[in-house]
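Run: sequence + nicotinamide-adenine-dinucleotide -> complex structure.
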Amino acid sequence: MEQLKLNNGQTIPQLGLGVFKVQDAADLKRSVAAALKEGYRHFDTAAIYHNEAWLGKALAESDVKREDLYITSKVWNSNRTYDETIAAFHESLKKLQTDYLDLYLIHWPSEGYNEKWRAMEDLYNDGLIKSIGISNFEKPHLEKLLTTAKVKPAVNQIETHPYFQQKELNKYLRSLDIAHEAWGPLGQGKSNVLDDPTLVKIAEAHNKSVAQVILRWHLQREIIVIPKSVHAERIAQNINVFDFTLTDEEMSLIAAIDKNQRGSGDPNDEEFLKNSMSRD
Ligand code: NAD
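>> structure
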């Protein structure tokens, strides 16, 4: 598994398994078992996915040692303050049956994130989190965060796929040495990116699936990917992307199919951010 070096010297496996919308303990257990068997060591969850406890159990029951795993979780928007962030983190740790996280992210740039970041920094400085980062932050959010941050985020996890390539934000993150992690790397299975004719042609040329070509394209952009699947054969397919390389020409052809088309979750949707902060 390829590793990327983060700005704090830690490394992250460049490909992991996302578990958003896995809402069944048995599905999660099967997916994790299949993933571990195929060589996945990196798992991405969040408090709001309501499956941390299932993931924790599945990992605890595996024979892979904790230090060989890479676990990410995220603090939800309803945890608004310093104290609430600390409490939410400890709740996640408990559910995940671990005493540290490899990566902990602020899930969305909802109001009060500078204060939440201060809590993340304290957890990081106490050695409870190996790396801290953000998710769904655009340039203005990041600029505001950096006015008070003492620790620079290691990662920004943002929607990214061939129809929403995030070229500008990628450049900005690169200039700050913040790693770009893609959520929805396959267009969440709901955009028609998997049928794109350019991608289909490239996939045929390499005898790979379109999903594999997309994941390979992310990897060659030095982006971290966490594709989600609960199907053993897709889980296997999605990690089988380290044995071929896209040419510069193929990378350019894919760069040209960008539609700047967001699939879901706009970080500038103030109403969504406000509603998601509800403590109910
Ligand atoms: P994704 O792009 O990984 O798409 C997953 C879907 O693609 C699957 O449900 C399936 O329908 C399809 N798929 C998977 N493998 C395939 C294959 N080999 N061939 C054909 N189809 C395939 O979307 P996602 O799950 O939304 O994103 C990945 C992960 O990112 C999530 O599970 C979660 O961990 C994270 N995420 C984070 C945020 C955030 O706000 N930070 C938001 C969404 C997702």
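>> summary
The mean pLDDT is 97. The first strand starts at residue 3 and ends at 5.
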